[in-house]
Design a protein that fits this description.
The protein is an all-alpha fold and 271 residues long. Helix content is 73%, strand content 0%. Helix 5 (130-156) packs antiparallel against helix 7 and helix 6 (160-167) packs across helix 7.
């Protein structure tokens, strides 16, 4: 099978981001929080590959650890939001009636507010921290996955093998776990991949506003915030984290589009 180009390019970009994030767990060129005022705004060199910032901290080391934080936030937030949303979608499709109406109306209520704005409001209410940023991003993912899982599950409930399971006396809970959930995992995984990009962008926005990672923990968003007053003196300090955010978001976006092209037979037929 010939893989779509967007899937291949997405995998390459995400492989690079994940490699940097995992490598930062074991090694960075320097201590990311080490201050050296005498070396502030140092140009790129063999000692500091991308130079240093206004406090003499190594830029490469900060970018690497920030990649770790962004990937960690995205994975945990999307997993929590996806798990809760998928369970709610399965419950809505299995029970139906007033239960389905209540769950879907609550999901619609979540869609009524801009996701990023709602995450900012929630993080501000909970207090600035990386854990609270994770919870805020996870919360905005719940209605998305609830709607995707419910829509996909409703189609599965119409299949013959589900009718056969009903005739055999299986409960709705058993059917949901044994037949419905495995068959809706493809759209759930595609949606999760796309939401990774949204989560990384949301984490950067929250950290930019001071509601995400707190000093001395580095974050691409907070690096952008710190660099905004230095644009005329050292514009590269804003360019580097900005490029990292672009690479991660485009990578996950291309990967999600590629997975959708692979798993959706209707899209295959149009090509």
């Amino acid at each position: 099978m010939r893989l779509p180009l967007n899937f291949i390019f997405g995998c390459m970009l995400i492989f690079f981001v994940l490699t940097v994030a995992i490598l930062s767990l074991f090694w960075t060129p320097h201590n990311y929080s080490e201050l050296n005022i005498s070396m502030k705004f140092a140009p790129p060199s063999w000692l500091h590959w991308l130079g240093t910032d206004q406090l003499g901290r190594d830029v490469v080391s900060q970018l690497m650890v920030a990649a770790q934080n962004s990937v960690q936030v995205a994975l945990i937030a999307v997993f929590i939001g996806g798990a809760i949303g998928t369970i709610l979608g399965l419950i809505a499709s299995a029970i139906g009636g007033i239960v389905e109406d209540v769950i879907m109306r609550l999901a619609d209520l979540g869609f009524a507010f801009p996701a990023l704005l709602f995450a900012i409001m929630l993080a501000a209410s909970l207090g600035p921290s990386l854990n609270n940023a994770i919870m805020a991003i996870a919360f905005i993912n719940i209605p998305i996955f609830a709607r995707v899982s419910r829509g996909s599950a409703k189609q599965i409930w119409q299949r013959e093998y589900v009718a056969a399971a009903k005739a055999a006396g299986h409960t709705k809970f058993t059917i949901s776990l044994d037949h419905v959930l495995p068959n809706i995992m493809a759209p759930i995984i595609v949606q999760a991949t796309i939401e990774f990009a949204v989560a990384i962008l949301a984490e950067a926005a929250l950290s930019y506003l001071g509601l995400g990672a707190q000093p001395p923990q580095p974050s691409w968003g907070r690096m952008l915030a710190e660099a905004q007053t230095l644009m005329y003196l050292a514009p590269e300090l804003a360019i580097y984290p900005g490029l990292c955010i672009i690479i991660a978001v485009i990578g996950f976006g291309l990967l999600g589009d590629g997975l959708r092209d692979i798993t959706d037979p209707r899209l295959k037929g149009n090509k």
